[in-house]
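User: Could you check the structure of this?
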Amino acid sequence: MKRIAYFGGTFDPVHNGHLSIARSLVPLFRLDRFFFLPAFHAPHKSDREPTSAFHRFAMLSLATRSDPAIAVSTLELEKGEKRYTIDTLSELRLLHPEAKVFFVMGADSWADIRTWRDWEDVLLSSNHIIVTRPGYEIGIGHVTDAVRERIVDLRAADGTTDENSKDKMIYITDAVRYDASATEVRDDLGDGRLDNKEDIPAEVANYIEKYELYR
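Assistant: Sure, the predicted structure tokens are below.
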């Protein structure tokens, strides 16, 4: 059975923290493919209009072109509208009927999960990987008993424990310790200078500079 992960988000812009997640989870979960899944516009993030889908897809493609196991999915971008994760997960099950699919989310998304449409169904209808982030507490008091029963804490483990699991599980891992956020990156780029190149792949930094994004 193939093992495939999808990491949803706006990736506005993609940064080295995002890439660290992909590169760490591929060997840890023995993934055949890891897909970044950029949203056309995340429905729970209505405070600002994202950078165009074209630019975000281009930056992700540049950032992942040297990683054969990592790719970019256009599933949500092609819809051209706000999409809810519960609907995307249904499509992924149809797209990969014979695969074990994992949906990846960061600590901030986990903390805000109750704001998502049909959030409990989201968590119970797929395998999930929750990636911790320095400074963010991973609590479980905000979810239901049914969800808590599916949680597998891998933070003290040397590897995954899902080989024989037939249920849809929620894995918490601290394999990635890179601390960066797209909001901070955008703020640092706001004056038109790329002072934070250590947080952005060189190809992405050059793209941002060429097309004068985030000014």
